[in-house]
Amino acid sequence: MAREDQEKLLNEQYSNMKDLEGRMLGILPQVIDYVAGLSGFKSKYAEAAASYASAKEEMATEEEAVAVLRTEWAFRIGEFVYKGEELLHKGKIYEVLQDHTLQADWEPGLVPALYKLKGEDGGDQPADEWPEFVQPTGAHDAYNKGDKVTYKGEHYISLIDANVWAPDTYPAGWEKQ
């Protein structure tokens, strides 16, 4: 068997093992609750029962934290994401605008072609109506007509599509508010 085939088989076996382990661990708390209820465990071993309840609550909190981290952009670099997914970055929620593989240099907030800032309530309206100007690196993240920015403490609206210039570099491309 070729080395690549062996690695593939090993990866499949490992994945199956992790899946089985997850399924087993998923039902373990219910089994413990059931057995503890049958045996009078809670009344006989009150301290151990309280400790178990506390650990169970702590685990739920940890699971919630992990769920949040799974949406954190920085922890997912190298993964493929789909249009419509939401990612957390620097405390803000971004919607993925097109399918792509996350790259360290395609950071939400810097690449408008890939991400759209979501409102604090999860709506489509950006939380910050006048986001700070970020110098585009090309057509893929250029500002379009009507885009609003804050530049050096002043508000500007882009007057043209594919605007890659700062307001003081090309004033004809921006309208100061």
Summarize the SSE layout with pairings.
Blueprint: H1 3-39, H2 41-44, H3 46-71, E1 80-81, E2 86-89, E3 92-96, E4 100-101, E5 115-117, E6 148-151, E7 154-158, E8 174-176
Antiparallel strand pairs: 1-4, 2-3, 3-5, 6-7, 7-8
Tell me what you see in this structure.
The protein has about 180 residues and is of the alpha+beta class. It folds into 3 domains: about 5-65; about 70-120, Seminal Fluid Protein  PDC-109 (Domain B) (Ribbon); about 130-175, Seminal Fluid Protein  PDC-109 (Domain B) (Ribbon), CATH 2.10.10.20. The protein is about 40% helix and about 15% strand. The chain has helices at about 5-40, 40-45, 45-70, and strands at about 80, 85-90, 90-95, 100, 115, 150, 155-160, 175. The strands form 3 sheets. A 3-stranded antiparallel beta sheet has the order 2-3-5. It is elongated and about 80 Å long. The protein starts with a helix and ends with a strand. The model has no long low-confidence stretch (mean pLDDT about 80).
Rg calc: 25 Å
SSE order in H/E notation?
A: HHHEEEEEEEE
Uncertain ranges: none
* Total count of strands: 8
Oligomer description: single chain
Helix content: 25-40%
Strand order, sheet with most strands? 2-3-5
The biggest beta sheet is recorded as: 3 strands, antiparallel
What overall form do the CA principal axes indicate? elongated
Overall pLDDT score: 80
User: Structural class, please?
Assistant: alpha+beta
Keyphrases for this structure?
3 domains, 16% strand, single chain, Seminal Fluid Protein  PDC-109 (Domain B), 38% helix, elongated, 177 residues, 3-stranded antiparallel β-sheet, alpha+beta
